[in-house]
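Q: Sequence in, structure out?
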Amino acid sequence: MKKTAALALSLTFLFSAHYQPPAQACSFGSDPYFTYTLHPDFPMRNYAVGQLGILQNTYARSYLLVAQRYLADKPLSKEEQSGVEALWKERFDSTYMGCSANTDSWLKLRGTIPGITPIKSIDTERAVSKEDEYNTYCNAQSSAFETATKTLQTLITKYGIGSEQVKQWTAAQDQVFSNAGSPQYSGKIPVITIPTELPADADAFLKQERNYQIAAANFYAQNFDDAIKQFDAIAADSASRWKQLAAYLAVRAMVRKANLPKVMDKPLMEQALKKSRELAADPNFAALKSDIDAVTSFVAARIAPNEHLQELVTQKLTQDNASEITKTLDNFIDPSNDGNAVLYQDVPAELKKNPVIDWILAFQSTDDAGTKHSIDKWKETHSTEWLVAAIAAIDSDDASANAVIAAAKANKSNAAKWILFHHVNRLEADQNKTEAVRVALDKVINAPPADLPAGSLNEIKKQRLRLSRDVNEFVKFGVQTPLAICSDGGIPQLPDEAADLEGKGKNKPTFTEEAGNVLTLKMPLSQLRQVATKSIPTDLRNDVAWTAWVRAVLIGDEVEAKQLALIAQPLNKAKSKMFAEYLAAMTPEAKKFAAVYLMSHFSSARPNASAGVLQDDSYGDSSGWWWSEKPVEAAPNDGDGAKVETFKPLFINAAQQKELAGQLAKLKTVDCAPNYFAKVILAYAKAHPSDPRLPEALHYGVKSTRYGMTTSATTALSKEMFSLLHTKYKGNSWTKQTPYWF
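A: Exactly. Output:
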C-alpha cells in the first residue's frame, strides 16, 4: 500500500519561552474534516486512555509515541495520560502565526510615567540577518516584557513615579526593546540603539540595572559577543540581583549566535551545552531549572540528537518528556520542517536501534524499505505493534498478505482492533471479497461500538462508499457529518467551534470529497437527477439539482434540464420565480436566455456538485464565481493538500459510462461563465431588444466579468455589454448601477 506522506508532523519547535525558529507563512481555508489526519479525534482524553481508533501514519509523532505504548501493551499511567493531554493542549493553544509577545502590561504601566511619549505597540520579530531577511525569529518574548514591568514597578516604588531615575530607566528600556524588531523585506540594516553606561558615581543599584539593560540591548541587536561578555560580567557581580539570570542569558546568547547562521557553529554549541549543564548542577540556579533544562535539551538535540533521544525514551512519559522526544525526532528527521515523507531507507542507522523510535519511523515511512522492515519485524516478533505497521503498509497481492490478515483477525488487542479491522477490509476488498467486506462494514456502521471514534466511523463509511451497490447506498455512505469545520488559521486541523473540541459539535451533513468527485466525474445527468430525489438533507438535494441543471443547460440537454429544474425549483425560494420563467420559455433561444438570466444572478451556479461546505449566495459575488473554461472540476485535494482519489462506482453500467463520456466531452468545450453569459445575452438582445429583463441581464453580465473567472476575450465582451446598456437603455436603474466595464 502506498501510504500517505506525513504532513506537517509537528508544530513549531517551541524553545521554552525564549527561542523560536524562523516564522513561516500560513495558508487559510475553511474545510470540513470527516477524519483528522494530523491528530486523533477530540476530546483527546479518549486517545490518551487507549482508544486509538483507526491510527493514521500522518499523525504527529506525539500521538504515535502514545500509540506505541498501547500497542505494545504498556498502557499509560494516569499521570502519563495527564502529561500527554497537557502537551497536546499546549500545542493547540499555541500558534505559529506571527510573533506577538504580550506587551500589554508593559505598555500600560509605561504609559503612566509622566513625560514619556505613549506608544501603541512594539515590534518583536527580527530578520535572521540582512542577507536572510525573509526568515525571522521572535526576538523578545512575553517574559521579557513581564520582567520589564516588574522592574519598572520596583523603581516606581523605590524612587517615585515622576522621578528622573524612573524616566531615565524607562527611556533606556525603550532603547532595549527598539532592537527587538527590524524592517522586513527592505534590505536596510536595522538601527542599533544601546543605552549608555551610567557615570561611575551613579547609584549602585541603578548602575546594575543599566548594565543589565545594555547586555539585553546587545542581545536583541545580535551583538552576541558583547552580550555574552556583559552577561558574564553581571553573573560575576555577587551584588547584582541579575547574576543568576545573566549567567543563563549568556548561554542563550551563545546558542543564538551559533544557530542564526545558515550553518550551525557546533563548537560554540558544545560550549553552551557544557555551560548549561554546569548551571543545571548548581543549586543556586534552582529557580531557573525549567529554563536551563530547556536550553540544555535544545542544544543536546542539535549536537547529539541520537544520544539525547536514547536517554529520553527510557524516562517516564511526562508532558516535557513527550514534548522533547517528538521535537528532537522531528528536527532530526525533518530539520527544515517542510513535512516531507519519511523514507525508511534514509533513516540514520542509530535511530533504528531504539525499538520505540524504530516503530514510529517505520509506521510513518512511505517507501518499500519501511514496508519490508515492518513485515520482517512482525514475522520476527509476532507483536501487535509490528502487526499494525505491517498491515498498514502491505498490499493485497504481497506474498505475506494472507498471513498478515489471518494474524489481524486473530489479534485480541483492544488498542489495535480498529486499525486492524480497517486494513483487513481494505486488503480483502482489493482481493475481490466484496460481499464479505460489505457485511463486516455494515455490521459496524449499523451499530457503532462505543469505543469507535467518530472519525474512524467516517473512515469505515468511506470504505463502504466504494462498495455501494446502487445510488441509494452511495448517498447513504457518501453523506457524512463532519467532525468539525477548520479554517486552519495558524494551527492545522483545529476546529473553529469550541463544541467540536469536546466532540459535541452540531455540524451539518454534507458530501465527502470522494463522493463529490464521483458526482462530478463519474455520474451522468440521469443519475445526478436520481441523487437529487433521494432522502438526503434538503440543502444537498438543492445543490445537486441546481448544479446538475447548470450542467444540463451548458451541454444543451433540454430534457434533463427541464426535469432538473422541476426538482430544483421548490427547493430554493430565491430562484423559484426565475426557474418558472425558464420552464415557461417556449423556444430554445428563450430558454437559454432565461437560464443565463438565472445563473448570472447566483454565483453558486456551477456544473459541478459541491463536496464539503456548500457554495451558496449569502455572500453575494464572492461565494462561488460560477465556472472557468472547460469546467470539469474534481476536488484536487482535501483540506490538507492530500490528493483525493476518484473511484468508479460499481453500479455504473456501460451505457451510463457512455452517456457520461459524451456529456463530459461537451462540457469541456464550454467557455468560462462571464463569456458564456455575455454571448447569450448579447445575441438575445440583438433579437429581442424590447425584453424588459435585458437591462438587468446586461448589468449582471457585466458584473460577472468582474467577479467571475475570465479569459483574454472577457474584456471586449464586458465592454460590449456595457456599451449596449448605456446606449440602448439610458436612464434605466440597472444602467445607473453599472458605472464600469471590466
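The CA atoms of residues 41 and 455 lie 6 Å apart.
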